[in-house]
Design a protein that fits this description.
alpha/beta, single chain
């Protein structure tokens, strides 16, 4: 039986009088691709922010393995093995591709600040190892030979892959991808789907996705959690969720659902 890597337990999030999440719970199994879907404003990105502790939940708990992580600082959560990307790409646009990857590696560099100042042999060896790992990541994300290019000069799909590469540079056990196919045409979407599968196979990590394209969700996910207005309305295997009357109603409206679902 698969081991639970992440548990979101009755998480609520309030912004003044606005309830963004209400008692949301789900488990993510180790090694799986788990998707969180729902209409615009359903609370999907808020869930991600509560997991990474960019937002501290108003109520509930978040567990990563055997450790409760709600209330920790985001850098501590990252150090435990959770990394993420964003719907709107957040690269360091004015530095090179390889420098973006090296930024992601800082969590695991062993040399100290004084070692950098003194340029000790240990620091130089640490930096060489990081550079070699960055070159390997560049090749994996399809940017071999382009490490010196400024991030802003890369094509859109290349920037998406570079952002995922930077997240991988932190050596995560759980990778959160927020709309990885946003803004892509069908060919680019298919390429990204294949790339995400290669990420799972190469690095043996667990993936949690927010995704709007149902083709992506239904073909890639092991399990799907559906949110609507901050509440979980369904969960299960993709085919089960696709047939759920509450999900159809959330996406199409109750009138359409009455025609789409047998009585």
């Amino acid at each position: 039986m698969a081991k639970t890597l992440l548990s979101v337990c009755n998480v609520g999030m309030r912004f003044g009088g606005l309830v963004a999440l209400s008692d949301v719970s789900f488990d993510v199994q180790e090694g799986s691709i788990h998707s969180v879907i729902g209409p615009n404003g359903a609370g999907k990105t808020t869930v991600f922010n509560c997991i990474t502790q960019n937002l501290r939940p108003s109520s509930g708990e978040v567990w990563f393995g055997d450790e409760r992580i709600d209330g920790l600082k985001p850098d501590r959560v990252a150090a435990l093995g959770i990394s993420r990307t964003y719907q709107n790409i957040r690269l360091f646009r004015n530095i090179s591709a390889i420098e973006n990857l090296l930024v992601g590696m800082h969590l695991h560099l062993r040399s100290s600040w004084w070692g950098a100042v003194l340029n000790t042999p240990f620091t130089r060896a640490d930096e060489r190892a990081a550079h070699e790992q960055a070159l390997e990541l560049l090749q994996f994300v399809g940017l071999r030979g382009r490490g010196d290019m400024l991030a802003r000069n890369l094509a859109y799909g290349e920037q998406r892959r570079l952002e995922i590469g930077r997240a991988l540079a932190t050596r995560p056990r759980l990778l959160l991808l927020d709309e990885p196919t946003a803004g892509m045409n069908p060919r680019e979407t298919s390429e990204m789907m294949a790339f995400v599968e290669r990420v799972r196979a190469r690095y043996a990590i667990t993936l949690l996705l927010i995704e709007h394209q149902m083709r992506v969700v239904m073909s890639m996910s092991d399990r799907v959690t559906v949110l609507d207005h901050g509440t979980k309305i369904a969960e299960g295997k993709p085919a089960e969720v696709q047939r759920d009357p509450a999900v159809i109603a959330a996406y199409l409206g109750t009138a359409a659902a009455a025609h789409a679902v047998p009585a």
